[in-house]
UniProtKB/TrEMBL annotation:
Species the sequence originates in: Janibacter indicus
InterPro entries (UniProt xref): LexA/Signal_pep-like_sf, Pept_S26A_signal_pept_1, Pept_S26A_signal_pept_1_CS, Peptidase_S26
Protein name in the entry: Signal peptidase I
Bilayer-crossing regions: 29-47
Top-level class of the enzyme under EC nomenclature: hydrolase
Key words, A-Z: Hydrolase, Membrane, Protease, Transmembrane, Transmembrane helix
GO terms under cellular component: plasma membrane
Highest classification ranks of the organism: Bacteria, Bacillati, Actinomycetota, Actinomycetes, Micrococcales
Family per similarity comment: Belongs to the peptidase S26 family.
């Protein structure tokens, strides 16, 4: 009677793995997750970040509850009329202290990763429009409106009938600093609220997080800032 050869199955068990379980797929998955986390962290740190806007200081351009994406590329290249997010820890202190929060799909992902890695999500971040850059003389009166170096500034982002300011001011912006205003002039604690503080409410360019690139929520207002953009 012929005897069937016995199949040797010893080779199917990886050496050093008595349980017969190949750990390589698990290690590969952990590596891929690690790479994905690193890419998201780098994306947030150097490219873009998602913010939820809780206050009405930028109405009607940006409404409470809007979700915006801020691009960090060229953050230090700021011009008059730009809408920016900046770290106001050292300049705006507790005024207008409604923190921005990461939100939406991008925001929740970043928030979860940042929480895990103890990354500061910027609870002192503020969103305003640049009215003056280094060297500018920025003035405003209720009758003459906003002016830079004596030239009137067209501000189509203001609500019709809104005055550029209720209280006159006249400032010269130091080099490397920014004078910022909210579009909702009657309800925005911006550079005007800090004229008597050290630094005069002027935001260092180095504190700029980035420029508001587009709005992704609500869906009926998705896209750029449109006619209200600087």
């Amino acid at each position: 009677m012929s005897t069937e050869p016995t199949q040797d199955t010893s080779a199917s068990t990886p050496a050093g793995d008595p349980a017969g379980v190949d750990a390589r797929p698990a290690r590969r998955l952990l590596l891929e997750i690690g790479i994905a986390v690193l890419l998201v962290v780098l994306l947030r740190a150097f490219v873009m970040q998602s913010f939820h806007v809780p206050s009405g200081s930028m109405e009607p351009t940006i409404m409470p509850g809007d979700r915006v994406v801020v691009t960090k590329i060229g953050a230090g290249e700021v011009e008059r009329g730009d809408v920016i997010v900046f770290d106001g820890t050292d300049t705006f202190a507790a005024a207008d202290r409604t923190p921005f929060a990461s939100d939406g799909v991008i925001g929740r992902t970043l928030s979860a990763i940042a929480s895990t890695l103890s990354i500061d999500l910027g609870e002192q971040d503020f969103l305003k429009r640049v009215a003056g850059v280094g060297g500018d003389r920025v003035t405003c009166t209720p009758d003459d409106g906003l002016q830079v170096d004596g030239q009137p500034v067209d501000e189509p982002w203001l609500e019709p009938g809104t005055t550029a300011c209720d209280t006159p001011f006249d400032v010269t912006v130091p080099q490397g600093r920014l004078f910022v205003l909210g579009d909702n002039r009657g309800d925005s604690a911006d550079s005007r609220a800090h004229l008597g503080d050290p630094g005069g409410g002027m935001v260092p360019v180095d504190d700029v997080v980035g420029h508001v690139a587009w709005r992704y929520w609500p869906l009926d207002r998705i896209g750029g800032l449109g006619d209200h953009a600087g």
